[in-house]
Amino acid sequence: MVDLDIQIPAAFDPFTEDNDSGAPGAKEYVHIRVQQRNGKKCLTTIQGLKKDFSLEKILKDLKKEFCCNGNVVQDKELGKVIQLQGDQRKNASQFLVTAGIVKKDQIKIHGF
């Protein structure tokens, strides 16, 4: 038998998740959303922060800065999510950028 040195390329699936953070287009976004409660009350959620950060310390600073209440909620699908009282979307995005936690192009603001 003859041994051939042929390398068969692995199948490439374009729809698989790419875990390489250095690849272009593979940004990790931080999503800031607002959810309507009852009446005029609303809730701001921040998700997608890196696990390197202490969410409890970030929450403490956010609460002091915006004079609002909040907590960290553990979600099955989304992981840990920060919740703040009121519509704090713009305030939270400015805070995260000025604190150096995320870059401005990594923030997605959702809501009405």
TrEMBL record:
SUPFAM superfamilies in the cross-refs: eIF1-like
Organism: Coffea canephora (Robusta coffee)
Keywords: Protein biosynthesis, Translation regulation
CDD domains cross-referenced by the UniProt entry: eIF1_SUI1 (cd11566)
Function statement: Probably involved in translation.
All residue ranges annotated as the SUI1 domain in the record: 30-100
GO MF assignments: mRNA binding; translation initiation factor activity
Pfam families: SUI1
Key word rRNA-binding present: no
Protein name (database record): SUI1 domain-containing protein
Entry's family note: Belongs to the SUI1 family.
NCBIfam families cross-referenced by the UniProt entry: SUI1_MOF2
